[in-house]
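User: For a reading group we're discussing how well predicted structures match intuition. Take Transcriptional repressor of aminosugar metabolism (GntR family). Before you show the prediction, I'll give you the sequence so everyone sees exactly what went in.
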Amino acid sequence: MIRQGEISEGDALPSERDLMAAFGVGRPSIRDALAALARKGLVKISSGERTRVTRPSADTIISELSGMSKDFLAQPNGLKYFDQLRRFFESSLVRYAASSATPSQIKELGEALELNSKSINSDTQFRKTDIYFHRVIASIPGNPIFLAVHQALMDWLIDARPERVNTVELNKQSYNDHVAIFECIKNGDVEGADAKLSAHIDYVFDNYYD
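Assistant: Thanks. Here is the predicted 3D structure of Transcriptional repressor of aminosugar metabolism (GntR family), as structure tokens, for the group to look at:
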């Protein structure tokens, strides 16, 4: 009914009683179906109000994949495959950033880099500012799906990262990689930005995940 356009975004669904009659099923089946639709971002269920049709966001779509993705990461070579996915995805993002970033976007990326530099001695903070630096790059095309995919990918990979002690030296090198990537983006060096990103991902995979 929703995908066929019989019910539009913002419209209230029929009551549970009407849905039971229409589909010939009991109340538990209707509630299970509505819960499944809510997880997919197709409806919004509010206590005391009629369920309404909504439009799924990019975040909703990605969250549906999270469970399967984390299971896949735990399989042999799962981390390797996700690392390859990150390479393909971020390569396109960094190339776009180097060719198309506006002065204000470059300024924002520089500010993210400064936050990263101030957190080298704190592994928890460094992770956050590391992700933020890459997230700013992912935001440059202005595509919300890219941001959602990037956020999910980082969440999956960070969850899979082993706990380490004395990461300051690793963080310093990772920060230096970020500086090199930033300089290439600022100077419009597409090939250089891609090469620096590839070297950075090599370093991260070899030193943070082994």
